[in-house]
User: What shape does this take?
Amino acid sequence: MKTSVLIRNARMASGSCPADILVSGGVISGKAPAGTLSADSADTVIDASGKLLLPGLFDIHAHLCQPGREDKERIATATAAALHGGVTGLMAMPDTAPVMDNAAQITTFMEICRTDALVDVIPSGCLTKGDGGEEQASYDSLRAKGVRFITDGDRAPDNMLLLYRAMQYASNLNLTFALRGDVPALTARAAMHPGTTSYRLGLAGSPSCAEENGLETIIRLSVDTGNSLHVQTVSTAGSADILRRCKPETTGLSAEVALHHLLFTHEDVGCYDTNYKTLPPLRDRKDVDALIEAVNDGTIDCIVSDHTPCTPFSKLQDFVVAPQGMISLDTFLPAIYQYLVQTGRMSWETVVRACSDAPRRLMGLSPVSLEEGAPANLVVFDPEGETPVTDETLRSRARNTPFLGKTLQGKVDAVIFGEQTYLF
Assistant: This one.
């Protein structure tokens, strides 16, 4: 039996007057001024007074780990965490075990998603066979399975001839290469950003110029071959400047920033806290400020989670040995609100553009509509609520987040996605 949900007195990110939204059978079947739709018309009523109604967010950079690394994360737990953070769609990185470098692996992954995923999941495909960086993967078979993005995940290409020929080969396949700017020879032994904290801790630094020089190179390759390029996890002010210069004259160039690069700096590492070890590393305050500005002016298209689950043991190792990455799907929208919106550094309109509209556009999907007749894909967010981050509240299988034991301002109260309603 189809159920219906009435969201009363909802305020939109656009600042328009509050409205009542009726969802029936997975579709927005009614929209009217606040207080005018009858509660008798719905099976469930959500009072959204003082709350915000947002389109479901879409994250185009998440490591889901399954199949093969279920000790870190599973599709069921990752997508449950996504819902908890206001995210209703994901693009999965191909670094499963084995990696998604062929049609058979894409098929296996999607079969798991069909039974376990709570949100839309789209796979990306490997740039090279086995994610090894030495031999081009089979792009034709990946494209036939619906893959749109080609990437080796967090691995930056160091064989520029291979990358150039791969881009030439793929130029007619309508594929986007998702790459991170890097010069591996400069960053191979680095553990964090070079600065006062790395000096105090005696750790080797990953210089900003490595990312910026790598970025210039991959942009030039994409221009020469005519391929679309999506720049992953931009982390420096210099990279933002390069994108601002190149985007107006470069067709098919887009970019993302990981949320943690908008929230934290290298100083947060403190005394070797591995929860703050990321790839690229957390940078300086001036970089954070420049990246926020670049999102606000559209130079950087998307904010991503870069959700990277790690086992508890691995993060307890020495800082140099411990893996990079943090989980962030569970806390995605509350963290954006507390650090960016509540502080006045970013508007809700920008959040919707960078976390919902632009990612879907890059994936070839239509933006979420909040108008009558549109499929239901809605998030009710309470700015006055709180999100405690504990072992009990986290939906992710992993626990490598600097927010563990803390409480974030703001709370995802409900997600209405298709015919499903999730209340938190």
User: Anything to note?
Assistant: The first helix runs from residue 75 to 84.
